[in-house]
Structures are given as C-alpha cells and as structure tokens.
Amino acid sequence: MSCSLRLDNVTLDYYVYSVRAQSLRNAVFNLAVGGKLYKDQGDITVVRAVENVSFHLQDGDRLALIGHNGSGKTSLLKVMAGIYHPARGRVDIEGSITSMIAASAGMDFEATGLQNIRKLGAMRHISNKVIDERIGPIVEFSGLGDFVRLPVKTFSAGMVARLMFACATEFEADILILDEWLSAGDVEFMTKAQNRMHNFVEKAKIVVLGTHDFNMVQIVCNKVCVLDAGRVAFYGPTEEWVERGRHLRVRQDS
After folding, report:
1. How far is CA 64 from CA 39, 40, 67, 77, 227, in A?
2. Which residue, of 187, 205, 213, 220, has the fewest CB within 10 Å?
3. Does the pLDDT at position 52 exceed 90?
C-alpha cells in the first residue's frame, strides 16, 4: 500500500492568556516557537509559530526539516505527528505514522511504565492483543526490568527516553517523524539503539527528520525544507539546497 503526507497552507498559532502581568508578557516574547507575537486582544496574545507551510511527500521521500532554534521546526513536526492541530490548513496522511519528537511526548507520568506502553500503543490504534504481545520485547530492549511497574514520575530522564524509544520503534510504521537523529538516553543505550534506529528508518516509507546535522542531510535525505520564522524559506531537492549553500559560501568569501 502506498502512503503519503501532504500539508496544505498549514498555520499554527499558540494562544497565551493573561499576559498583562509583565513576567508572563516576557515569557511570551521568549517562546522559542518560530513565529512572532502578532495580535493582542485584551488578555489574549497570539504567537504564530508556523505560517502557510505546504509540501507533499510520497513513498521513498526523506525530508530534512532545517532551521535555527526558534524557527518553528519542532512545532511543525508536532503538527505532522498529530500532537498539535493547525489553526488553518490541512494535514492529510495516508499510512500509519509514529514520531520521536520529545522524550516525554504522550507520556502519563502518574501512570506506570506498563500502563504507558499500553497507552502509547493505543494512541497509534494498535490492538490490545498486539500490544500485550510486544510488552516483553519493549521492556527487554529498554532495560527497565521491574522498574517498568513503577510510576514514570519516579524514572530518571534517561529511563523515560529509553522507554519512549523502545515503544516508538517496536511497532513498525509507514511514516516516521523524528526530531534529531537519535536521542535516547545514556551512552550505553544509544550504542545499542543505533542499529535498531537505522533498520527502523530504512523500513519506513516516508521519513521527516528535524536536524542541524548538514552532513546527515546529504547522506540520508532527498528533500530539504528550510524554515525561517515559521515560513518556508526553501523547499526542494537536497542537491539544489547544497548547491545554493555552495554559491552563498563563494559570495561570502569573495
């Protein structure tokens, strides 16, 4: 079955309430969401994080989403992953999708590790039978052992990341949304996770990778989307993006 990911004029707004207090107003200006504060009506301030973003990905596409911190990159990844709903525009997805954007995205810290495994599986519409069959491998790969029966709020940051990574990569998906290549906890676990991640990416039909690693972009991705203040500054083949960068460097050195 073919799959696709299409964004049509996607715009994302954050609404911040009661910003008359100076401390909260300062917090609004410091939000690293890519856009700018554009409207203030009473106690509601709107920050536009992403504006009119459109592109279409099909089987085999590997898209690098590039932008400096605060460009709106992570906000757009969360829209594609279904974590945020756009204020305007559409996101059309054909195929199953999974994401690794934040170590705790979708995690209930009051629930146990086991309960979170079931929750994360249910969020992807995976049957209870399949989830129960995969709990053992997930726990084994994460290395949590009996700690998986404790509330996640008792976990270290590395334990949370390992559980999230194990859950996200246990169930195959057509479309994979990633923020950076791999961020899965301690060094020992990352070494074990590298091969699993490479295999997972290779099996996915579409990959969207938010990254600052330009070398990886050239190796992995066939398309590039550059965001600047929530808007698309460039979208096209990786070769064209590399060539534009080369010409820019030549002009700067002249």
Report:
1. 31, 34, 10, 11, 11
2. 187
3. yes
Cα 173 to Cα 203: distance, rounded to the nearest angstrom: 8
Residue 173 Rama label (left phi>0; alpha psi -120 to 50; beta):
beta
Q: What is the DSSP letter of 70?
A: T
> How far apart (Å, rounded) are the C-alpha atoms in residues 20 and 88?
27
Each residue's pLDDT tens digit, 112-137: 999 999 998 888 888 999 999 999 99
Give the separation between CA 111 and CA 133, rounded to whole angstroms.
20
On whether the CB atoms of residues 64 and 223 are closer than 8 A, the answer is: yes
Q: What CA–CA distances, in Å, run from 70 to 12, 52, 73, 235, 246?
A: 14, 17, 7, 18, 24
Please say whether the beta carbons of 217 and 237 come within 8 A: no
CB 197 within 8 A of CB 181: yes
